[in-house]
Amino acid sequence: MQEEMGQITHPLLAAMVPVVRMIAGTFGDNCEVVLHDLRQPRKSVVMVANGRVTGRQVGQSFRDMMNILTAPHFEGEHFSNYAVTTKDGKVLKSSTALLRDEKQEVIGALCINFDLGDFMQCAKLLQDFCAAKPLASEPAEAIHNPDVTQILVKMIATVIAEAGLPVASMQKPEKLEIVRFLNDKGVFLIKGAVEEVAGQLNVSRFTIYNYLDEVRAHAR
Fold first, then answer.
1. Distance (Å, rounded) from C-alpha 132 to C-alpha 66?
2. Is the Cβ–Cβ distance between 154 and 148 less than 8 Å?
3. Is residue 65 part of a domain?
């Protein structure tokens, strides 16, 4: 943690020194914490931790204090989590709180400027990593890919073989169960699947369509 501190004469502002260090120490080098003595507006900055974030230095004046005080979200003596973009393009999440003395007069302010750059880069990396094309197609859309033809033929043959009966010995219930399984697995979204299943089950494609109607009706 980098730290710069000037002369702090008011006891309330002096009491904020460990608070500045605590905040900066907790949130790390991307978190700049600035303590202002507003009794001396031209050189209000009396302490800075991690000033590299915006280049703040002891002896400088406040920057956006008037805009902050007049902002609609400034309530309860503080404005938390407002966005600031620096001249060099850094995006900051900032917060400001006023400090009052025992007479309720404003004597200072505590400001936090958190550089979101690393987090925004991480967010982009996560977004890019999580981006994926959907596997499922619209139900009405038939998938046509010549490369899957061999896989389709072999899979249908395997499913039929696993039924444990020769096709010639199969009755409607056995064939209907095969169609149900293949439908559940999305096989009939592939172009030519109906014809292939019909051929391997030794029925017409219209029979397969009837089986599909029956299967899908029961699935509703």
1. 46
2. no
3. yes
Residue 31 lies in a domain: yes
Q: Same structural domain for residues 152 and 87?
A: no
Contact 25, 35 (CB under 8 A): no
Residue 82 near residue 95 (C-beta atoms within 8 A): yes
Query: What's the domain count of the chain?
Result: 2
Q: Within this chain, do residues 111 and 163 fall inside the same structural domain, yes or no?
A: no
Query: In 10 A of CB 174, how many CB atoms?
Result: 16
Query: What pLDDT does residue 140 have?
Result: 44
The mean of the pLDDT values for the chain is 88
Structure tokens at 181: 């399984």
Domain, as residue range, for 152: 146-215
Q: Is the pTM of this model over 0.85?
A: no
Q: Please report where in the chains the tokens 């006891």 appear, as a residue.
A: 11
State how far the Cα of 74 lies from the Cα of 82, in Å rounded to an integer.
Answer: 10
